[in-house]
Amino acid sequence: MKQTGMSQLLSRSVFSAILVLMLSGSCSEPIEFNFESEEDVLVVDGFITNQFKQHLIRLSFTSSKVDNIPIPNPARFARVELHNDQGEVFVLQNGGNGNYLTPAMFAEEGRSYQLRVEVNGKVYISEFEELPKAGPTPELEIAINDQDFRNIQQGSLIINRRGASIHAVIDKTATSNKNNVHYQWFVSDCRDFSNTPGLSSRICSVFGDITREPQLYLHRDPYIAGSVDLNYSYELTWIPKPLEGNVSGTLVVEIDQFIISQKAFEYWSDINETIVSRGTLFSPAVTRIFGNIKEESTGHLTLGFFGVYGEASTWRRIRLGGF
Question: What is the dihedral of CA 105, 107, 110, 115, to 10 degrees?
Fold first, then answer.
């Protein structure tokens, strides 16, 4: 079984997504976050997973401007802690440029976690979050078709171009069969000029670099009572083969897979829907998009979302020769 429709797609970083929302022109009312536009508004982007490693939380403010346009302004001097429901506290290390790293740890099943940020004399806390109740996290399985020809518009012409379609294989047998399962993928691409196919470390910078961001894809795999559990492939992206002589190096695509909560799925879906539909006369009314971070003393929401996700134990690298 194959689903060919493109999954929901948006930039991974809440920084760029929120800035688009702040600047988007529309006939409807702006999204309400309970802050004044001239204030330093905190933006939180990050999550922990069930994999044992250091996890990244990124903090920024929205007030920095170039030509009156807000740009990310890293929060470089925050104190960031992770609390669990058993009273344990993990202090995050300041990695510079608004990046904060947990000690090597993992999210335990049945435990809930809260992010606490102290910066500029204010304290921000997230809601307590726990691992999604979807059973074991499926391993990442990818299917590739590098002979996928499609009609695309090039100027005023429709041209049949060869490309590579990349699909995630949804394993219906790996997760609990009585829950909807919410998937998230990070897809990052870059060019490798070293011709080292056996390289085990990442070469496409995915985490910790605010200037280079992967694409984020979302998919809800529904539970249907009485249905037969069959695996199927779900298209993430299609990459057209470049015209001869236009590029050099080997195209490398790196993919990570996560199982996220329904709350996180709805949050990012709402942002995506608002970005896609903004600015037209018949656009739907912009709804309030609330994350799960608030200022402790006032209860006012700030921007962003702290998540606790299931993560596939391995990431995948695809090398597309001739692309």
Answer: 100
Q: CB of 72 within 8 A of CB of 64?
A: yes
Using CA atoms, how far residue 285 sits from 20, 30, 269, 280, in Å, is 16, 9, 15, 11
CB contact set of 45 (below 8 Å; sequence gap of 6+): 13, 14, 15, 57, 58, 59, 60, 304, 305
Predicted pLDDT of residue 289: 65
Map tokens 């196919």 to a residue.
Answer: 197
Residue 26, H or E segment: none
φ and ψ at 95, to 5 degrees?
-95, 5
Amino acid identity, position 12: R
Tokens linked to 288: 């309030």
From the list 252, 296, 65, the residue with the least C-alpha distance to 164 is 252
Crossing angle (nearest 10°) for helices 262-277 and 14-23: 40
Q: Which residues contact 243 (CB under 8 A, 6 or more apart)?
A: none
First to last CA, the chain: 27
249 with 319: CB under 8 angstroms? no
Q: Give mean pLDDT in consecutive 10-residue pieces for the chain, a chain of 323 residues.
A: 51 56 43 50 90 92 62 86 97 93 95 96 96 80 91 88 91 69 89 73 61 78 72 90 75 90 90 61 49 92 91 86 78
267 three-state secondary structure: helix
The pLDDT of residue 281 is 40
The secondary structure element, H or E, covering residue 266 is helix 262-277
Q: Which amino acid is at 118?
A: E
Q: What is the pLDDT at residue 23?
A: 47
The structure tokens 């608002």 sit at: 274
